[in-house]
Amino acid sequence: MSFRYMRLFVMFDLPVETSAQKRQYRRFRKFLIEKGFIMEQYSIYSKLVLNHSVASSYQKQLRANLPPQGNIQMLIITEKQYSDIIVLRGEKQTNIESSTERKVIL
To answer: Does residue 87 fall inside a structural domain?
Structure first.
């Protein structure tokens, strides 16, 4: 068995309109956190795994804990590919309503 660190991404879009759907969402999110996944963005979680076979075992566990509704996607990339990630952050939005600057176009 070769040791090649991989990153397993779980991206999900679950409905949260009813109380039952909210409960299923919380249960799935709690499952991810208990398994050691970290939040990259809202509804995108990742976990560092040792190799592809370990990632496959986590995929089986995720399939066993799927909520009945929603869209869930899994992606495996190497840690080398993940290290090439570029993070872009915009400036914080200013509240235009409370500013004294006004622009009037006639």
So the answer is: no
For 76-105, what is each residue's pLDDT tens digit?
999 889 989 888 888 776 665 555 565 556
**Domain boundaries, position 56:** 6-82
Three-state secondary-structure class, residue 24: helix
Tokens 């993070």, residue located? 87
- Between residues 3 and 22, which one has the greater pLDDT? 22
In a domain, 106, yes or no: no
Contacts of 85 (CB under 8 A, 6+ apart): none
> In the chain, how many domains are there?
1
